[in-house]
Amino acid sequence: MLEWQNVSALTTSNDDHNLTYMDSHHAMELAHRPVKIVIIIVLGVMITLGNIAVISVISSSVAGWSRNSRYFLLSLTGADSAFGLIVMPLNLCVSLVKNSSMEPDPFCHIVAFFNSTVYSTCMYTLATISFERYIAVFYPLRYRSLMTRRRALLLIAFAWLFPPVLLLPISLPEGIIEVHFSTASLVCNPSYSSNVAYSFTLTGLIFFPCSIVMTYCNLRLWFAAKRQQKRLRKSYLNGRSRPNVASRVLVPVMAAYYACWTPCMAIMIYNAISGNGVSEWMEFVAVWLPTSNGFLNCIFYFWINQSFRRKFYTIVGRLFWGLCPELCKAMGCIPVTGFHEDHRVWNNNNAFQERSSSVSSTCTLLTLASNTYV
């Protein structure tokens, strides 16, 4: 009897210790919540403003960018904008009224569904862009027959419509996937440990296929650009060194993709297998890191492109001159001209755009370096 009382007392003591630890841990997460909210808001503003600037440019004609390229890049911009316009506001709203001790509700399931859908759409869109660039560079003469307008739109439709179908079980409150709000990441997280097979199905149909397509296509482009660089150096530059355009474009794109998405996928698989969580800030960083890819895409896919920057400066200059002509005159600004001429030239030359799509957007790999010396 005495031994049983000692065991019972020890068990009660351990339970009290665990409850005390959980309460202190939860209190710490709540104390860090304002800092996390500020980080999320700043990141959301950066993503939104960056993608608004991109949409304002690529919604019109850009020299050297084909029609299909603009479709794919608009799709990417839309997916990235969804981070700042949908994912972040929804999760911030939930974080203001919920904590991890509250039971999941249908609204949290809907938020988790939108989170997963936007994340997956962004990955599929990045994969389709890599595939389009691969076709444009390696099959430039057959580009118009291989990548027709209809096929390009079908690829974009697949990137946007397949993820909601695949992730539909997350939106069902009584479905196979449980959803709980995490005070560590301020996100409605699906509990993949409740259905390990489904979590591996998601990674097997989303992250790994997209990563394989992106890695293969971009590695092929990188090796092609390196070979072209060597040939140009021997033929035209007499052995002079030239900017490593392939490393300047493709390496940052792939490095940013894996740096942003791998931690999130790794933690999801770890939680599904072990059933245990990770530390507070590790979870927060891993969950929100993919959204930063929405801002980095603006830099790697657009701002390093000279045609994009030139068109952006033209639009901003015309807008500034139209809104504040007196201030422009006082500052000695010169009215921006040539916009309509450039717009007309490229709109009336769609056939040339489609065949030369290999130099569109970040696909200027094989010609950008030579343009540097013009």
Helix and strand pattern: HHHHHEEHHHHHHHHH
Low-confidence stretches: 2-22, 337-374
What is the mean predicted local confidence, pLDDT? 75
Whole-angstrom Rg: 25 Å
Q: Beta-strand percentage?
A: under 5%
C-alpha geometry: globular
Structural class: mainly alpha
CATH class: Mainly Alpha
Number of helices: 14
Q: Please report the distance between the alpha carbons of the first and last residues.
A: 94 Å
What do we call the CATH homologous superfamily?
Answer: Rhodopsin 7-helix transmembrane proteins
Fraction of residues in helix: over 70%
Strand order, biggest sheet? 1-2
The CATH architecture is: Up-down Bundle
Describe it:
- This protein is an all-alpha fold and 374 residues long.
- The protein has one domain (2-304, 338-372): Rhodopsin 7-helix transmembrane proteins (Rhopdopsin 7-helix transmembrane proteins), CATH 1.20.1070.10.
- It contains 14 helices and two strands, in the order H-H-H-H-H-E-E-H-H-H-H-H-H-H-H-H.
- Strands 1-2 form a two-stranded antiparallel ribbon.
- It is globular and about 65 Å long.
- InterPro entries: GPCR_Rhodpsn, GPCR_Rhodpsn_7TM, TAAR.
- It is found in: Cell membrane.
Descriptive keywords:
mainly alpha, Rhopdopsin 7-helix transmembrane proteins, 14 helices, disordered N terminus, disordered C terminus
Helices and strands in order:
Layout: H1 2-58, H2 67-97, H3 106-138, H4 143-146, H5 149-166, E1 178-182, E2 187-191, H6 196-205, H7 207-235, H8 245-274, H9 280-303, H10 306-323, H11 325-331, H12 339-347, H13 350-355, H14 368-372
Helix pairs in contact: 1-2, 1-9, 1-10, 2-3, 2-5, 2-9, 3-5, 3-7, 6-7, 6-8, 7-8, 8-9, 10-11
